[in-house]
Amino acid sequence: MPTLRDIMTPDPVTVDPMATLKEVATLMLEQDIGSVLVVENDRPTGIITDRDIVIRAVAYGHDFGTPVTDYTTGDVFTMDANASIEDAAREMAERQLHRIPVTENGRVVGMISLGDLANRTVGGMDQEALEGISVPTDQ
After folding, report:
1. Is the pTM of this model over 0.90?
2. Residue 111 pLDDT
3. CB–CB of 68/20 below 8 Å?
């Protein structure tokens, strides 16, 4: 049975907690990505997306020299590299996630996204995840 290791993007782009918004935005531009993991001692402590930068910083006119940790989403949900693709699709749907860092022994080894489910699987797993992500939450 295929696992996350089979479809993940290996070696995701990461920064340390003291990276600035400008540094992260520049990485996103150079790497053509929409999210960056914040890691400390090879363990994820946060994640920031291009949308986070726009909504949480740019919209309020904040300084781009500010540490990225002021704008990250903490409590990063991760999954083990040996987890099943079906479990990842279910977790994405239930938690309304677009991406999940993949770990091995607690260390980040990859990233799986909704796009990975769409492009690298067969059987509509991306549809299951997308339907869950698209459901409004009771916030």
Report:
1. no
2. 95
3. yes
